[in-house]
Each structure stands twice: as C-alpha cells, then as structure tokens.
Design a protein that fits this description.
Shape: globular
Number of helices: 6
Distance between the termini: 38 Å
Order of helices and strands: EHEHEEHEHEEEEHEHE
CATH topology: Rossmann fold
CATH superfamily: Vaccinia Virus protein VP39
Radius of gyration: 19 Å
Strand content: 25-35%
Helix content: 10-25%
Bound molecules: S-adenosylmethionine
Length: about 200
C-alpha cells in the first residue's frame, strides 16, 4: 500500500493504482479529498503528521507538488520513515528550490538580452505566495541541502534525483518561460528506507 501525501483530487493516485498497487490518499482540503474518494480511499488530515498510521505498515509514500505546502520538512521525513517498511520508497516531486526561493526570478541582461536567473534568498528557508486561481498559495522554500540532510537523518537512502526545465505546456502560456529551458523548474527525488538496526546482541 502506498500513501499519496497531499493527494488533491486523486488524479495521481488513480494513475499509480492503475499499475496494480493500492493507494491511500491524505489531504487537508475536504473538497479535494471528496473528489479523490471517488478514486481511492482518503484520510482528511493536516500533514506532515501521520499519527493515524501505524509503524512500518506502508510499502512507500509519495508527494507530488505538495511538500512545498507542508510545514516542517524534518517531520515529513521522520514520519514517512516511521510508517514505511524497510526497503520501501519515498518519492517527492517539488517545484525546484531554485525556483521557489523568495525574491528569485528571471532577469534580462540589458547588454545582450540574455535571460538570467536571480537566486534571491536561495540559501535561507522562507516562504513566498504565488497566485493560484483566485487566491494566493503559500510555498515553503527549502534549499536542496536542507532537504537531503533532513531525509538522510531520518533514515532515507538517496536513490535518484531528476531535474527538469519548463515543459512546452508552460512555455506556451508564457513568453519568458519559453526561454527557460535550462533553468530548473521541477525536481523529483526518490529514496529507499534503510533497514532498521536489529536488537543488539545480548552480552
Ligand atoms: C498543488 S496540489 C497537488 C495535488 C496532487 N498531488 C496533484 O499533483 O495533483 C497540493 C495539495 O496539497 C494539499 N495540502 C497542502 N497543505 C497540506 C497539508 N498541510 N496537509 C495535507 N495536504 C495539504 C492541498 O490541499 C492540495 O491538494
């Protein structure tokens, strides 16, 4: 069984379940959770707390474009590690931290028109608000080093990292974004749960 953390309306869970695994979603938004419930079981809970899940009962967990909204990444990694069996996986897809840093953004070099990226406050964790429909949604920025260190400290073994620039869909919406191909926009990371140490031998 896999946990879909911040499952939204359940569309990702439906794709994962189509591969033959069972999925249980968790989301704080009751309206979205109701929609997801038509696709797979869902708990309405505020993450990263997973107190409702027993130790080592899940095969893995994933969070797609959701971790940026949870308070407390350290708790996210320790809680997911607690509920995942040894050898299980954790996958996150996040807006790339280069993109979420407060005050980061594109700048044009006035001398030659080259598109450059301003790092803003990349090295400090912080928050920013981005427009989403009629409202502004809070994004929590965490530098890559802080994320990887928190995951390692919780017992997650790094397996794979992928980075992507803007896709053609985003480029079609925004002229500037169309020139963003080499600027990281999304990041996906997969970890494996290290085996837990067995009981120490009796002396
Ligand atoms: C951008 S949506 C992504 C939804 C889904 N993973 C997808 O990719 O289609 C972020 C989701 O995280 C949920 N969320 C935000 N903060 C949360 C929290 N503290 N606990 C649980 N869910 C949360 C939101 O309600 C929303 O459904």
């Amino acid at each position: 069984m896999f946990l879909d953390l911040g499952c939204g309306d359940g569309r990702i869970g439906e794709m994962v379940a189509a591969r033959g695994v069972s999925v249980v979603g968790v989301d704080v938004n009751v309206r979205l959770a109701r929609m997801a419930a038509g696709r797979h079981p869902v708990f309405v809970k505020r993450l990263p707390d997973l107190a409702c899940v027993r130790d080592e009962v899940v095969d893995g967990a994933y969070a797609v474009l959701a971790l940026e909204h949870f308070e407390g990444s350290k708790c996210f990694f320790t809680e997911t590690a607690r509920v995942t069996r040894s050898g299980g996986s954790l996958t996150i897809v996040i807006n790339h931290p280069v993109y979420t840093a407060p005050r980061s953004g594109p700048v044009i070099d006035q001398t030659d028109g080259e598109l450059l990226w301003r790092f803003g406050r990349y090295l400090s964790p912080g928050t920013s608000f981005e427009p989403a429909g009629h409202q502004a949604v809070e994004f929590r920025h965490r530098p890559v080093g802080a994320l990887l260190t928190a995951a390692a400290g919780a017992g997650w073994h790094l397996e794979e990292v992928r980075e992507r620039g803007m896709g053609p869909e985003a480029a079609a919406r925004d002229d500037l974004a169309a020139r963003h191909g080499d600027i990281p926009h999304l990041m996906a990371i997969r970890w494996r749960r290290r085996s837990r140490p067995g009981p120490s031998p009796e002396r």
